[in-house]
Design brief:
- Two copies of one chain form a homodimer.
- Chain A is α+β, with helices and mostly antiparallel strands.
- Helix content of chain A is 34%, strand content 22%.
- Chain A has two domains: 275 residues, Aminopeptidase; 123 residues, Alpha-Beta Plaits.
- In chain A, the strands form five sheets. A six-stranded mixed sheet of chain A has the order 1-2-6-3-7-17, sandwiched between helices. A four-stranded antiparallel sheet of chain A has the order 11-13-9-14. In chain A, strands 4-5-18 form a three-stranded antiparallel sheet.
- In chain A, a hairpin with a 6-residue loop joins strand 1 and strand 2.
- The mean pLDDT of chain A is 94.
- Strand 11 of chain A pairs antiparallel with strand 11 of chain B.
């Protein structure tokens, strides 16, 4: 594959850049036409790479791209999952180059989606192309590339149920995560789940002059702040009643195994420019992001937020709040518990509404599985170091659903790095990871 | 005056509407040209009304309009203060008619500034016109109409110091407040002061993926909420160290005198559509908004606030926080105490910045003063009921400054009503109050 990459490098980048130039932001309805453009583009790329058939399927939301090359029904079938939708680009003013005008700087591709997940999904298309053109196919290969991962895949689970036979496979292969570092390759053996809600706190039925009413009428922003503050106690534990009921405590041995991943606290703090970390008492930073649930406010707004000063006592305040869950916690149960709890702590004088957004459950992948072992050998060969198992703090809720629907394990071979700042301005993807990823994927097929 | 109003009603409204159509929003730099247009328009109106001279003066900020008619140096001189700038119009979608297209509905003028303060200042120009044209002038009259009241009058105090002789007067007359009700006329005998700050809480130096970092890295929104929650204790008292040091407790007699103003709690709650009020323990709703200080978050923002869901752990969170002060509290001292306190409660893992906006001190006006007595008699005659003294919860910081600079008392004859929802969508001004205000002002000149 190394040789093949060297010969085709320029074409690969040109093709990827064409995909990156399409602003396929799934959360914004104005980008609907871009979703179709991007899906059609990927369909063409799959056909050019060697798929026997490829289709853009309608769903209740954004379209799904499906492609396959079935060589021999007796062979094992691998389903590659990826997504072509991307996160919004705000705050746009912090980007050093336009998010949808990909640029190579210092050995990395800069663009929204460069890593998450256009860049990573693209590696699979090219590894597939290599196998086809060099006559190295030893598995049947299927692709499913969806357009709603960043908004919680609201349509894909139903679509997958309706197309269960089409998607039938022995293993699901996914590159949508990070590894610990270029010199510390790792394979995710578990992901956190997610419950995401939006809350609205209403005080008076209109915006008021804070001079005339301040002090007597409950201010919904103050009330919201107080309610949010009550959600986490002084030990960093979430106070939602029943929240920890289904959390499985890891054994000391498991914690030690995961603790093998190298971690430099000073580097971590320096990278983020923070003087200290904080979280649930009794757990390390890696455990807090890997094996423990958490709660974060992802957005808050209310009142006057423009330039200058306005003395308003607003009618409403809003927040987006998400909880990362660990395997065995159910995202719907947690969203319900949150709603009950949040309503129960509302002070008099305000009304509270909780609206659930998408959610998903976490999951675990056995290290002993043949797929994990094959990936470990492939990555070890490319990087010259045996990869360590890690637990991903992020969530790909749809994978837990697909795992259930298709009854197969997902294998998470992610080649992103922390430095890529996905979801943030200046998302990037290191070229070296891009190429090593392709190589590792090609080798995986040899060892699986 | 009643007769004169009847004869000129249409012209009055046309002239006022021309002023209301100018979007003189002082907080927004893009409206700078509108400030000049509005100032020039008012200068013309003053000259047409009978001013001997009128000028638009440059300041370090928005221009000031000055006009005067000096008839006899031995007469008492009255300085009328008003402002021609208005509040922003957000949320614009809640307006039933365009904020800068004045409209009469159900006996009221609807427009931004209809009451605050274009409508109220306009009454003075027309009462002045009446005195001039009917040969009833018995005082020298000066006008000062500023363009920065809604942003805290940053330039006027210095300008007034530089033009002390020009502004020399025996009493300052101001209509920029409300009365209790159409059937319960009242005169403000005190106003609250204001300290207004903007706070910025910074966590990590970039927006992060909440899945990868959530649980370990301090979220600046959660931190900000917690800090805001700590600012008010369970008794509704502000926890800023030293905040109450200069607050003068009112005597039981004074509290009873102010308690004479009628107040219907059920009506109040129904008007605001709230199930309960809340505030500092041990005080009534009227006391909480009149004679006690308070703290309100006027705006809050951070993270992802768009449509849908984004799993971001943001770098920054912001809030605008204001404190209403009572006479004897110093706004600069309070802003400093706030900053010290707010920095002291910042948790590890975040950095906090506090930026003061404008502020001003509260003040009191003696009920026994001849000006208060003349106003009381004039309003009593027009409304058929003796007005009650009240304490305004709002702040006109510049009045406390002018009081000091010019060494005169301000008299607050406000004709606004609560229903006018100034600073909010659908600001309005009842025509009946508009005309009764003019009459009361004209009579004031007779009795003073």
């Amino acid at each position: 594959m190394k040789q093949y990459i060297a010969e085709n490098q320029e074409r690969f980048l040109n093709e990827l850049f064409e995909v990156l130039r399409i602003p396929s932001i799934s959360s914004s309805s104005e980008h609907k036409p871009d979703m179709y453009r991007c899906a059609e583009k990927l369909k063409s790329l799959l056909l050019e790479a060697g798929a026997e058939r490829a289709e853009v399927y309608e769903t209740t939301g954004h379209p799904v791209v499906y492609g396959e090359k079935i060589v021999d029904p007796s062979w094992k079938t691998i389903l590659i999952y990826g997504h072509y939708d991307v996160q919004p680009v705000d705050p746009i003013e912090l980007w050093h180059s336009a998010p949808f005008e990909p640029e190579i700087r210092n050995g990395a591709i800069y663009a929204r989606g460069a890593n998450d997940d256009k860049g990573q999904a693209f590696m699979h298309i090219k590894a597939f192309e290599y196998l086809v053109r060099k006559g190295l196919m030893r598995h049947n290969i299927k692709f499913i590339l969806e357009g709603e991962e960043e908004i919680g895949s609201p349509s894909l689970a139903q679509w997958a149920k309706d197309h269960k036979d089409l998607l039938a496979c022995d293993i699901m292969l996914v590159s949508d995560t990070t590894m610990i570092g270029e010199n510390t390759p790792s394979i995710n053996c578990g992901m956190r789940g997610l419950a995401y809600v939006e809350v609205e706190v209403t005080g008076p039925n209109k915006d008021l002059h804070s001079g005339h009413y301040g002090g007597a009428v409950v201010n919904p922003i103050n009330a919201l702040c107080s309610m949010i503050d009550q959600l986490i106690d002084e030990n960093g534990r979430i106070t939602v009643k029943g929240f920890y009921d289904d959390v499985v405590e890891l054994s000391q041995a498991d914690r030690e195994q995961l603790g093998r991943a190298p971690f430099d606290m000073e580097e971590y703090k320096e990278f983020l420019d923070i003087d200290d970390v904080n979280g649930e008492a009794g757990y390390t930073t890696q455990e807090r992001t890997g094996i423990r649930p958490c709660l974060d406010v992802n957005g808050i707004w209310g009142g006057f937020t423009g330039e200058g000063a306005k003395t308003v006592l607003p009618s409403k305040a809003h927040a987006k709040i998400s909880m990362r869950l660990v395997p065995n916690q159910n995202c719907e149960t947690i969203a319900r518990l949150f709603e009950e709890h949040f309503l129960s702590i509302a002070p008099k004088g305000v009304r509270v509404k909780v609206t659930p957004h998408h959610g998903g459950n976490g999951f675990l992948i056995p290290i002993s599985s043949p797929a994990y072992q094959a990936a470990s050998r492939a990555i070890g060969e490319v990087y010259g170091i045996e990869p360590v198992p890690s637990r991903g703090g992020g969530s790909i809720p749809i994978l837990a659903d697909l795992q259930q629907i298709l009854n197969v394990d997902p294998l998470l071979m992610g080649f992103g790095l922390e430095r890529d700042t996905i979801h943030s301005p200046n998302e990037s993807y290191l070229l070296s990871q891009f190429y090593k990823g392709m190589e590792s994927i090609a080798l995986f097929y040899r060892y699986f």
